[in-house]
């Protein structure tokens, strides 16, 4: 009992400190420009202006278009990485072709080097292939950049599945592809949830590549839109900027809430596997 009390004494203050910036951002998002200018930072707004700020961020600042772009990129990157990484991991961990460890090291090496190393060659390649400032180019890039980490997760998970299960499926006449589709993938929902949450969040929060590989509002993701809103259009309308930040945070929060059960199971399985 004393140990539990000690844990709560340590965790609760840390949670409050962690949530403090969120609370202050929400306070600003609910104020109008006059309240923001004359009130203290911690003071409650004199009138609730949140819907008006949301409307400003969504329509006037054109955050709606950026939101849709990021949603397309994040879903494509997460789903694509799950498909390709699970296929690669099934081959490496269960079929074990010659040089499988080298193949995995080659795939995972994409996460070893700083992403800034890719900027110049990637930018030049995209211009030569006419993929610069296109949604197709952004989707292909996000799938490729998300696959190495997803391969690590699926490889670790597939390694924990007993060999007897695969041997039993082969005795029933299942091909390797059918075993992958009907045995391994249904069992890998926790691992897929971990990959989906991490990769969706990473793509959604990406600013660097969205800024370098795009140049127009029709293709740029939401973080670039927020940066433009802050640097060009926000001016005195800081509450509108904070409302835009609230909009940008909603999809990742919703995804985590929807997949929290499988996400926690997946993290637990990864810990056991290690």
Overview of the molecule:
With 274 residues, the protein is mainly α. It has one domain (52-273): MetI-like fold, CATH 1.10.3720.10. It is built from 13 helices and no strands. It has helices at 2-29, 33-38, 50-60, 63-95, 100-108, 119-128, 135-158, 163-171, 176-187, 189-205, 208-212, 222-233, 238-273. The longest helix is centred in the C-terminal third of the chain and has 36 residues, at 238-273.
Task: Please outline what is shown here.
The protein has helices at residues 2-29, 33-38, 50-60, 63-95, 100-108, 119-128, 135-158, 163-171, 176-187, 189-205, 208-212, 222-233, 238-273.
Write out key terms for the chains shown.
274 residues; globular; 77% helix
Class based on secondary structure composition and strand pairing: mainly alpha
Which series of helices and strands comes N to C?
A: HHHHHHHHHHHHH
Between the first and last Cα atoms, what is the distance in angstroms? 30 Å
- What form results from the Cα inertia axes? globular
Count of structural domains:
1
Tell me the layout of helices and strands.
Layout: H1 2-29, H2 33-38, H3 50-60, H4 63-95, H5 100-108, H6 119-128, H7 135-158, H8 163-171, H9 176-187, H10 189-205, H11 208-212, H12 222-233, H13 238-273
């Amino acid at each position: 009992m004393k140990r539990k009390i000690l844990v709560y004494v340590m965790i609760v203050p840390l949670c409050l400190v962690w949530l403090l910036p969120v609370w202050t951002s929400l306070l600003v998002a609910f104020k109008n420009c006059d309240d923001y200018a004359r009130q203290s930072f911690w003071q409650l707004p004199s009138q609730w202006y949140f819907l008006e700020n949301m409307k400003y961020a969504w329509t006037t600042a054109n955050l709606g278009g950026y939101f849709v772009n990021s949603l397309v990129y994040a879903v494509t990157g997460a789903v694509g990485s799950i498909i390709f990484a699970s296929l690669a991991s099934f081959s490496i961990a269960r079929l074990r072709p010659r040089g499988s460890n080298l193949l995995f090291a080659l795939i995972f090496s994409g996460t070893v080097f700083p992403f800034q190393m890719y900027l110049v060659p990637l930018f030049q390649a995209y211009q030569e292939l006419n993929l610069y400032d296109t949604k197709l180019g952004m989707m292909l890039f996000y799938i490729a950049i998300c696959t190495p980490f997803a391969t690590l997760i699926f490889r670790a998970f597939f390694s924990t599945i007993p060999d007897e299960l695969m041997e039993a499926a082969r005795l029933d006449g299942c091909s390797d592809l059918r075993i992958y589709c009907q045995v391994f993938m249904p069992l890998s929902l926790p691992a897929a949830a971990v990959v989906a949450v991490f990769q969706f969040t990473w793509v959604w929060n990406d600013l660097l590549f969205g800024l370098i590989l795009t140049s127009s509002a029709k293709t740029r993701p939401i973080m670039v839109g927020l940066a433009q809103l802050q640097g060009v259009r926000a001016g005195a309308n800081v509450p509108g900027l904070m409302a835009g930040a609230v909009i940008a945070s909603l999809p990742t929060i919703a995804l985590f809430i929807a997949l929290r059960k499988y996400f926690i199971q997946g993290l637990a399985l990864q810990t056991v596997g290690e």
